[in-house]
Amino acid sequence: EVQKHSVHTLVFRSLKRTHDMFVADNAKPIPLDEESHKVKMSVKLRTEYGSVLHMPTLKENLREKGGPNTEDPYGHKEYSGNQGQELDYMITGTHPYPPGPGVALTADTKIQRMPSESAAQALAVALPPSQARLEANRTAAGVGDIYRHAGAGERSQPPGVAMAVMEAGGNKNSALMAKKAPTMPKPQWHPPWKLYRVISGHLGWVRCIAVEPGNQWFVTGSADRTIKIWDLASGKLKLSLTGHISTVRGVIVSARSPYLFSCGEDKQVKCWDLEYNKVIRHYHGHLSAVYGLDLHPTIDVLVTCSRDSTARIWDVRTKASVHTLSGHTNAVATVKCQAAEPQIITGSHDTTIRLWDLVAGKTRVTLTNHKKSVRAVVLHPRHYTFASGSPDNIKQWKFPDGNFIQNLSGHNAIINTLAVNSDGVLVSGADNGTMHLWDWRTGYNFQRVHAAVQPGSLDSESGIFACIFDQSESRLLTAEADKTIKVYREDETATEETHPVSWKPEIIKRKRF
């Protein structure tokens, strides 16, 4: 027979059950026993800090604890040696030790080495000054004290002025120093660049450009599958080379031999002999379009990068593939070589930049700061630095480890190409046809150019695919989507008065990532 209870009784019974369930709280910590805690800490002090317990002790610490011969909470007696003298530190000798192995340590056998008087004085000088000594050496109120204790001291202080208190040799000197906000240094003035020649002749987008070491002519590669050689002074066409069966994406002229190297979306890498204007070598191995190439400045090595996510190192003479640099996870868009380590730098659509060890064929450093594809990398001709271009921003880095220097923000477009000259003018060319010119040292954007497209072209055919300075660095050549090559030079009539730097340090900020 089920006994019936009132709702009131059932609720309270339920509450009691719940209370009983949770009252035995096993997770609650056991109350701390003071005596056992003291023993534990005493043992811990002896085992972990026993080797340094004999070292000098600050007198102020003793005073705070209630004077000499006081005990700490864990039973260790503290004492000061000469209680009547004004000593800052107690300098003690070594622990007692036996004279040799196997000898019992007793009062008769123990040896204790005490420091000599000169050593003790030297140690006392080396130790930092105590507050007592600072008080004793203070002779007069410093400027800081006057400011601190005067009624309107803080209010009368000019904004941005900070008190710099220097503790030198125990003397307290106060100096008023203006605390500057971190600002960007004033950029170097550069004359603006102006367009003075437009060269046409290609029947497709001009994808790549290179100037020969003698500065007499330059070479371009195009989506019309041809390579054209132009006279640099006059802009006249000298020669057309055919052989690629798809867009030519990279050209470079060797300074060590009369060779021109080209690569394209047909997976081919060709070596042209400029004495016969014929292809003399092919470099086979890439599995997809070859996007860029560069020559090593001191050895006969060619480096190419491809959409197959690799870069390859070729022996120019034997056509052998020395190394396949694998590690990128998307198309490698750009590659650069230099004589110093790291000798190879690649930028990829996987948003990373890799610095490679040429001898081992392995990655030295991977830089992952960019958030979007890295299509352009340029090395400074004089400094041991380089820059990389991406739609998020342009970043500058230090060799050899790729330490980040600064961001150059403001070119909000897909940056296809970068070029820099010895004067510190960095040029970035973008997919929308805009070109920004920057001061390399400070990252100041001193000029923005958007040249009109060639008559007859669509406005959408406004894009800069490649740019390069000639060997004299007085001309800047750009390869563009309106099938032209545009040549810029510095405006010789411009002065710093006619084109001042509109530089506002408070609004120019460097992001660090």
Automatic annotation (TrEMBL):
InterPro entries: Prp46/PLRG1-like (IPR045241), WD40/YVTN_repeat-like_dom_sf (IPR015943), WD40_PAC1 (IPR020472), WD40_repeat_CS (IPR019775), WD40_repeat_dom_sf (IPR036322), WD40_rpt (IPR001680). Coiled coil: none annotated. The keyword Repeat applies. Pfam families: WD40. GO terms for biological process: mRNA splicing, via spliceosome. It comes from the Eukaryota. The keyword Flavoprotein does not apply. Keywords: Repeat, WD repeat. GO terms for cellular component: catalytic step 2 spliceosome; precatalytic spliceosome; Prp19 complex. WD repeats lie at residues 199-240, 241-282, 283-324, 325-366, 408-448. Involved in pre-mRNA splicing as component of the spliceosome. Component of the PRP19-CDC5L complex that forms an integral part of the spliceosome and is required for activating pre-mRNA splicing. As a component of the minor spliceosome, involved in the splicing of U12-type introns in pre-mRNAs. Identified in the spliceosome C complex. Component of the PRP19-CDC5L splicing complex composed of a core complex comprising a homotetramer of PRPF19, CDC5L, PLRG1 and BCAS2, and at least three less stably associated proteins CTNNBL1, CWC15 and HSPA8. Interacts (via its WD40 repeat domain) directly with CDC5L (via its C-terminal); the interaction is required for mRNA splicing but not for spliceosome assembly. Component of the minor spliceosome, which splices U12-type introns. Within this complex, interacts with CRIPT. Also interacts directly in the complex with BCAS2 and PRPF19. Belongs to the WD repeat PRL1/PRL2 family. This is Pleiotropic regulator 1. It comes from Tinamus guttatus (White-throated tinamou). The lineage of its organism: Eukaryota, Metazoa, Chordata, Craniata, Vertebrata.
